[in-house]
């Protein structure tokens, strides 16, 4: 049954990759007020390896989770008895980290006699624009992050239809691997973006895989490989390195913009006739990509909505929001909520589409959704 309380206060916990985060959010008549928002990154731990090491991430989460939750609760001024529920990312993600966050959340929920809400990390991203914007359903969603890249039709809470997805690397993954190839350090996405600002995006003729094929599926593995070959063919100067980063970013932007225009052309905005185009996930923080998608939205007569930059990357505020909205809608069972739910390394938002037309298969690299 839906929760009859007009105000819900929820603790959210996020540990799916390399950020340990906790937040307390208050939902009143559908409007979210963020009472605390603590994010502890693991950049220093993973930087020597130029990528996230799952075992190191899990260990860091185990060391930081309790301290992060304590800081978020203190900052919020809310006691555990005043919470209406506890939400934690329960997948998809690095299973060791997911387990740490889930067990922390379940322990707090049981100790405080509050319902536990198992949140799909992707649903957190899907709802994240509702943290700081007026963003009613329905809307077209482009989810672009280190592990995910897909177009989704969002009709309401829990109502998601996959329209297209990457068939190999996620776009954030392609950014990070390109940075690693070029020796730009970790995290790779911001490093590529910084160099691209001073480069010529037409200097290197890079491929745009699947650009002219019908449908909304995307591919970035071939583009990433083309960058590696271009870098191997020459002893690159600083100017050429900037040009290569700009060319790579330009190719990604072209792919996302072209597919977004197709998606918006077919999107049914519902009764109010207002097309809303939401871009969420870590790559949504890329200024060049966001600017290009804004132009696409304007040309389609749509409004582009994106979460604040802090909430593009992984954070607990979006998890708390998803938990609060699920509690308000009665999408948890019993007083204990989702305590019986287990951690899931893969958890598609559109499970029917994932089963009917998986974008990955045994022995084949693919999208993590």
Describe this protein's structure.
The chain is an alpha/beta fold and 369 residues long. The protein is 39% helix and 19% strand. It has 11 helices and 10 strands. The chain has helices at residues 43-46, 54-76, 95-112, 121-127, 171-181, 188-196, 221-232, 238-266, 287-299, 317-329, 351-356, and strands at 7-14, 19-28, 31-41, 85-89, 116-119, 139-144, 149-156, 159-165, 275-280, 302-305. It has a 5-stranded mixed sheet, sandwiched between helices. A hairpin with a 4-residue loop joins strand 1 (7-14) and strand 2 (19-28). Helix 7 (221-232) runs antiparallel to helix 8 (238-266). It is globular and about 60 Å long. 53% of the residues are buried.
Helices and strands, with pairings:
Elements: E1 7-14, E2 19-28, E3 31-41, H1 43-46, H2 54-76, E4 85-89, H3 95-112, E5 116-119, H4 121-127, E6 139-144, E7 149-156, E8 159-165, H5 171-181, H6 188-196, H7 221-232, H8 238-266, E9 275-280, H9 287-299, E10 302-305, H10 317-329, H11 351-356
Parallel strand pairs: 1-4, 4-5, 6-9, 9-10
Antiparallel strand pairs: 1-2, 2-3, 6-7, 7-8
Helix pairs in contact: 2-3, 4-10, 5-6, 5-7, 6-8, 7-8, 8-9
Quick rundown:
With 369 residues, the protein is of the alpha/beta class.
> Averaged pLDDT, please?
92
What is the assembly state of the chains in this entry?
single chain
Identify the strand order in the major beta sheet: 3-2-1-4-5
Tally of DSSP helical segments: 11
Q: Low-confidence stretches at least 5 residues in length (pLDDT < 50)?
A: 361-369
Percent in strands: 15-25%
What is the number of E strands? 10
Share of residues in helices: 25-40%
As a whole number of angstroms, the C-alpha radius of gyration is 20 Å
- Give the N-to-C terminal Cα separation: 29 Å
């Amino acid at each position: 049954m839906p929760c009859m309380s007009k105000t819900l206060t929820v603790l959210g916990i996020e540990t799916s990759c390399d950020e340990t985060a906790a937040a307390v959010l208050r939902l009143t008549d559908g409007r979210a007020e963020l009472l605390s928002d603590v994010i502890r990154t693991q950049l220093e731990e993973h930087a020597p390896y130029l990528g996230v090491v799952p075992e190191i991430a899990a260990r860091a989460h185990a060391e930081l989770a309790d301290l992060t939750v304590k800081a978020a609760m203190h900052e919020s001024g809310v006691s555990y008895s005043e919470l209406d529920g506890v939400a934690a990312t329960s997948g998809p993600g690095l299973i060791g980290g997911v387990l740490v966050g889930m067990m922390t959340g379940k322990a707090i929920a049981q100790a405080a006699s509050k319902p536990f809400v198992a949140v799909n990390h992707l649903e957190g991203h899907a709802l994240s624009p509702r943290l700081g914007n007026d963003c009613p359903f329905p809307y077209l969603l482009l989810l672009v992050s280190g592990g995910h890249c897909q177009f989704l039709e969002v009709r309401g809470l829990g109502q998601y239809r996959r329209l297209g997805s990457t068939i190999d690397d996620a776009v954030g993954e392609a950014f990070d691997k390109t940075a690693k190839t070029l020796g730009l350090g970790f995290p790779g996405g911001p490093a590529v973006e910084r160099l691209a600002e001073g480069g010529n995006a037409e200097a290197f003729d890079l491929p745009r895989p699947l650009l002219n094929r019908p449908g909304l599926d995307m591919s970035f593995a071939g583009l990433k490989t083309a960058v590696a070959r271009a870098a191997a063919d020459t002893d690159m100067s600083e100017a050429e390195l900037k040009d290569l980063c700009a060319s790579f970013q330009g190719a990604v932007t072209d792919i996302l913009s072209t597919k977004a225009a197709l998606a918006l052309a077919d999107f049914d905005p519902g009764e109010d006739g207002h097309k809303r185009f939401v871009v969420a996930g870590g790559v949504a923080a890329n200024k060049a990509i966001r600017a290009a998608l804004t132009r696409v939205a304007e040309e389609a007569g749509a409004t582009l909505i994106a979460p604040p930059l802090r909430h593009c990357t992984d954070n607990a505020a979006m998890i708390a929001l998803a938990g609060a909205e699920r509690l308000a809608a009665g999408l948890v069972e019993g007083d204990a909520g989702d305590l019986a739910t287990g951690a899931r390394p893969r958890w598609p938002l559109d499970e029917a589409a994932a089963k009917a037309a998986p974008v990955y298969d045994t022995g084949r690299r693919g999208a993590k959704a």
